[in-house]
Amino acid sequence: MADRSKHMKIASSVQEIEKAVTEFRKFLVDKCRCTNVRTAFNVEAALRELMLNADEHAHSHDSGRSITVDLDYDDEEIAISVQDEGKGFDLEAVLKSEETASVDRIRGRGLLMLVRIGYRLTREGNVTRAVLAR
Fold first, then answer.
1. What is the spatial distance between Cα 64 and Cα 66, in angstroms, rounded to a whole number?
2. How far apart are alpha carbons 45 and 41 in whole angstroms?
3. Best label site of 43, 50, 83, 103, fewest CB within 10 Å?
4. % of the chain with per-residue pLDDT over 70
5. What is the pTM of this model?
């Protein structure tokens, strides 16, 4: 059986994030045999959103800092964990914010989008975890 987990540690930059998303997509197709276009799109959206949040909010676009990403894929769910070097944030407060529900809102929309796709989001310390049932 093919290894269905991938770990990467990258520099905190948009360029490195895009390279990582491409590498994770290749992993999904080649190693996990994920051929469902919707699933691949949803995984890419979560990876990109969570890593960009780490780059912007935790690291203030400091490419000297690192983002660590783990993806685990099985027949029941896909789990993505993104660890940054920030102090953390209150995920529940962001998701419950009245302004988050507005499409005009700049902050919190990406996380809300992931919830609406079907991800279960949790935050512990400086690790954000997104789990999507398959």
1. 7
2. 6
3. 103
4. 90
5. 0.90
